[in-house]
Amino acid sequence: MTQTTLTPRESIHPVDPRDHVATALRDLAGGERIDLPQQTITVAVDIPKGHKIAIRTAKAGEDVLKYGWPIGRATTDIAVGDHVHVHNVATRLEGLEGYAFAPSAPELEVRSSDRVFAGYRRKNGRVGTRNEIWVLCTVGCVANTARRIAEKASARFAGRVDGVHAFPHPFGCSQLGDDLAHTRALIAALAAHPNAGGVLILGLGCENNQLKALLDSAPEIDRDRLRSFTTQMVEDELEDGLAAIEALVAIAERDRREPVPISELVVGLKCGGSDGFSGVTANPLVGRVADKVAEAGGTPVLTEIPEVFGAENVLLRRAASRDVFDRAVAVIDDFKRYFIDNDQPIYENPSPGNIAGGITTLEEKSLGAVQKGGRAPLVEVLRYGQRVGPRGLTLLEAPGNDAVSSTALTAAGATVILFTTGRGTPLGFPAPTLKIASNAGLAQRKPGWIDFDAGQVLEGVPMDDAAGRLMDLVIDTASGALTKAELNGEREIAIWKSGVTL
């Protein structure tokens, strides 16, 4: 997948020479003429900024290309200058597909980097970007108790660690089978996260997600930095919780940041509230940062499996081995069956906000979304609740939902999350989350949400220069600089509820 360079004052931007469409970089008025190097286009109708204009004709039934790949089929004849959107293009995807293992040569090689960040090296070898105390719970019944303990502890122990945070959730009881296992695995993975210098886990006592079973399932948790109890068995859960946190703070406050190579970074890659610029600016920009991390021996993690549909082959051809290919196909097909088993259409996407922003089909959304993974070989595939192992680009099973997938990225080990958006969202997660706007208008309108403006590449800043600036911000954040979400107190988790409730 190629990306051409944007230059200032362009009106439209085709991504790939093979494309039928280009993205409008400003509102286009019907009747105006646009001069391109090899053609002049007359705009047929008013076209909003971020939407697509035809630069080549397409007959009804013909594939329409963007990013050099089909984003759907024309439902009527499309002429040069036409607005290309849901009224004349429809998805070409349906049901399960067959995939052939046809790997391409890896485009990136690991090489040492002299770049470092100031992180917290943990006993198990992982490196955190924060030194916080996390309060987790086995079940929603004690969710507010966890929150109250964390609030009191934040005030009582202010300044001694990077923060005390509760991550409540509504699940853990009335769950069965794999659904219960997902909840247990997710909480256990969070309890082992390197950004937590200490962890308190609260149980109730009568829930399905028993505290002992959770702890027995997670041998990687550092027991020296863990405290836990069932609230039904203590007289005053608030005082017991505060005492437990005081003991954890006494341990964690001795930790110090130290220089570590960026090969120790685990970077979650996420997009939400995408628009027509996401695949032109923010996502390819994040892809370049993902490549820098992968080249240095670090671990970028891509997720949102339903937003891979239609762009699977872009990833699958980069599988480092047949085993990785087979496991990636299994995750993709299992997710499609998840929709089918629940009598839902597989391709019920993009969202209303995506469509308003100029995205027409799931293929277009997915082809833009997978660019966050850059060009690195795909070396690992994780199921929901699993944690990163081999270093390099990793694909993680999780839905597209912003909160669920970002929580899954954190549980997998992401210590920084890069979250691209064209529409904006205030959400934040346990790992520091950098919001990257696809357009300058969003960055200017919501400065309290946005950490980085990828719209600068629409103003002539070379993509590689912008990627260097974003990489600097990632390193600063990993070294302790607070994100907008952290400053706003936006910190939460969401668990994937995938089964029946008793």
Automatic annotation (TrEMBL):
The UniProt entry's sequence similarity note says:
Belongs to the UxaA family.
GO MF annotation: an example:
altronate dehydratase activity
Source organism of this protein record: Caulobacter vibrioides OR37
Superkingdom as given in the UniProt entry: Bacteria
The EC class name is: lyase
InterPro entries with a match to the protein in the record: GD_AH_C, GD_AH_second, SAF, SAF_UxaA/GarD, UxaA_altronate/galactarate_dh
The record's listing under Pfam families reads: GD_AH_C (PF20629), GD_AH_second (PF04295), SAF (PF08666)
Alphabetic keyword roster: Lyase
Q: Where is the SAF domain?
A: 19-90
User: What EC number(s) is this enzyme filed under?
Assistant: 4.2.1.7
Which CDD domains does the record match to this protein? SAF_AH_GD
Q: What is the designated name of this protein?
A: D-altronate dehydratase
Q: Keyword Lyase, does the record have it?
A: yes
Query: Which terms under GO biological process does the entry name?
Result: D-galacturonate catabolic process
